[in-house]
Task: inverse folding
């Protein structure tokens, strides 16, 4: 080292100190961002705690439980018909779809099967609740990205579907229509014609949304290539439904599973998308609404005649045993593991709801994304709070 | 508004103010569960169109709101947040409790984690029963609340005495589609 004069040394030290100060100033301090529990951008009351470094998320974690209503415990103190009234409210947007797997599980234990007409109508209502559920998602998607119009359109066209459900079941939202061994009632007069009309309207709605939202450049740039979930990771985290199919996994319980529902009588396509990003997830859901309208169209043409209720005793006692039935609900796989001890109510019910697994991936997928993308990724993962917490 | 601050307001002026207040309510949507969707249908859908009643459903935060609609299941974990929200709202403030859950616990009346009625933590002006109530019922609740505001003694509200009617007749909470609750 060459000898420095004292003056040089001092200036050297001063420069070092200035550098250090600059570094300290430029170093970004971490910040914890709390989203929710109540926020327009979270569907309901989910809380996300994110640790930020500048604009990027270092670590994020969902905090569930704000909507925990103790379902599994409550089912133990209800009789079987009362449980259906309760489980309607798990995924509140597609209420009817929640009843079906539970009823099927109970039927399996009792060894009764609903008559073909009841199975058929069940499937129709199942698909209608899928439309009611996912069409609202399509509208909501716009809101999360700052476009308000789609949600008005979604509410407009969703009303038609709700009218149909109300016409058939008497409940706009929570039908409680499924019974062990069949359905409460037959379809009302004129319902089928009405359904035909509504399905046309819904397809128009899908076209509109596709033009307005999916064709929008801002929407595309905010969703394409963002929040990519590879197929392997999706499987590891137990994603199901459209989230899994958007990662390129061809998996659909409607097609892959033999249940007493009318899905084997219709032909429908299971859409998949290779990308696994937010765009793919949204797009798959759009296609699914379309596909559901087609399924309903086919089904209403071929409703078999006959009764809608099998012979079951007045007071329902389910024999001892265990059964597991899961179906492809609007949000993904939903299943019930029913343990019966031969009493009026179930001994234990384990509920597997799709959203709980679907949001379990948030810590993985949110790592490293930018703050505005948190919202779009969460929106595209699509969960319903009641379905997470139960 | 010195008259208001001092808690002395001539009756005609009160009426005028009340008229203005009742038709310019900003409502904060505190949607918690299934009822939130019906509230969304009432407030956000073209079919029900709440703005024709003079209610604006999109304040950015509770600090701008005059009215909060608590719709859905209030759980014990959520209850502190509900209370906090209510405290953030500026006076005069009103609460509509929508749905059986918010009224009394609804289908979860025997659950270990659900608050049996939001009126245990915040005062409620209008109860809308139903599971879920139809959007029309919520709109009816809004209209009933507006009628109530028109008949409110504003000065008492400013003195912090809560809701006091001008004519002493209806101080009970309102229930949509029913008489006063016991
Ligand atoms: S009152 Fe019924 S519809 Fe409303 S939140 Fe409670 S369970 Fe859901």
Result:
């Amino acid at each position: 080292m060459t000898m420095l004069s004292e003056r040089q040394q001092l200036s050297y030290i001063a420069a070092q100190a200035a550098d250090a100060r600059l570094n300290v100033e430029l170093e970004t301090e971490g910040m914890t961002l709390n989203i929710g529990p109540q926020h327009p951008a979270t569907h309901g009351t989910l809380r996300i705690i994110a640790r930020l470094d500048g604009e990027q998320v270092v670590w994020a974690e969902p905090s569930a439980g704000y909507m925990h209503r103790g379902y599994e415990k409550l089912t133990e103190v209800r009789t079987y018909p009362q449980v259906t009234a309760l489980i309607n409210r798990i995924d509140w947007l597609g209420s009817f779809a929640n009843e079906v797997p539970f009823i099927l599980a109970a039927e399996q234990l009792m060894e009764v099967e609903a008559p073909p007409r009841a199975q058929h109508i069940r499937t129709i209502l199942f698909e209608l609740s899928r439309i009611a559920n996912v069409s609202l998602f399509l509208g909501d998607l716009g809101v999360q990205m700052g476009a308000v119009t789609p949600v008005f359109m979604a509410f407009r066209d969703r009303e038609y579907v709700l009218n149909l459900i109300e016409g058939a079941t008497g409940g706009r939202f929570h039908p409680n229509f499924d019974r062990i061994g069949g359905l409460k009632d037959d379809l009302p007069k004129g319902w089928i014609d009405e359904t035909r009309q509504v399905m046309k309207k819904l397809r128009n709605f899908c076209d509109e949304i596709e033009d307005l939202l999916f064709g929008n450049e801002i929407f595309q740039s905010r969703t394409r290539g963002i929040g990519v979930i590879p197929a392997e990771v999706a499987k590891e985290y137990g994603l199901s439904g459209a989230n899994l199919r958007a990662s390129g996994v061809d998996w659909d319980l409607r097609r892959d599973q033999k249940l007493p529902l009318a899905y084997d009588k219709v032909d429908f396509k299971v859409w998949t998308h290779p990308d696994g990003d937010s765009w793919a997830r949204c797009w798959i859901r759009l296609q699914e609404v379309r596909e559901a309208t087609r399924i309903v169209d086919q089904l209403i043409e071929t409703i078999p005649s006959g009764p809608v209720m099998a012979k079951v005793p007045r007071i329902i006692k389910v024999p001892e045993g265990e059964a597991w039935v899961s179906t492809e609900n609007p949000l993904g796989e939903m299943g019930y593991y029913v343990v019966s001890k031969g009493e009026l109510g179930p001994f234990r019910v384990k509920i597997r709801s799709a959203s709980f697994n679907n949001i379990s991936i948030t810590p993985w997928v949110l790592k490293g994304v930018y703050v505005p993308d948190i919202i779009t990724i969460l929106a595209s993962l699509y969960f319903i709070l009641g379905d997470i917490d139960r | 508004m010195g008259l208001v601050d001092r808690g002395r307001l001539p009756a005609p002026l009160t009426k005028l103010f009340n008229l203005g207040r009742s038709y310019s309510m900003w409502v904060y949507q505190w949607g918690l569960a299934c009822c939130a969707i019906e509230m969304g249908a009432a407030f956000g859908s073209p079919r029900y169109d709440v703005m024709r009643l003079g209610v604006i459903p999109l304040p950015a935060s509770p600090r701008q709101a005059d009215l909060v609609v608590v719709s859905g299941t209030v759980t014990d974990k959520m209850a502190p947040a509900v209370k906090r929200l209510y405290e953030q709202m500026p006076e005069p403030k009103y609460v509509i409790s929508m749905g059986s859950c918010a009224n009394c616990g609804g289908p979860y009346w025997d659950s270990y984690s659900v608050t049996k009625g939001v009126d245990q933590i915040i005062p409620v002006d209008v109860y809308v029963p139903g599971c879920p109530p139809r959007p029309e019922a919520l709109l009816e609740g809004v209209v009933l609340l507006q009628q109530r505001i028109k008949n409110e003694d504003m000065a008492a509200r400013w003195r912090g005495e809560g809701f006091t009617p001008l004519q002493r007749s209806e101080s009970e909470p309102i229930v949509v589609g029913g008489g006063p609750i016991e």
Notes: Chain A touches chain B at residues 37-38, 44-45, 65-70, 73-74, 77, 85-86, 89, 92-93, 95, 136, 151-152, 155-156, 158-159, 172-174, 385-386 (CB under 8 Å). DSSP finds 16 helices and eight strands in chain A. The two ends of chain A are 71 Å apart (CA to CA).
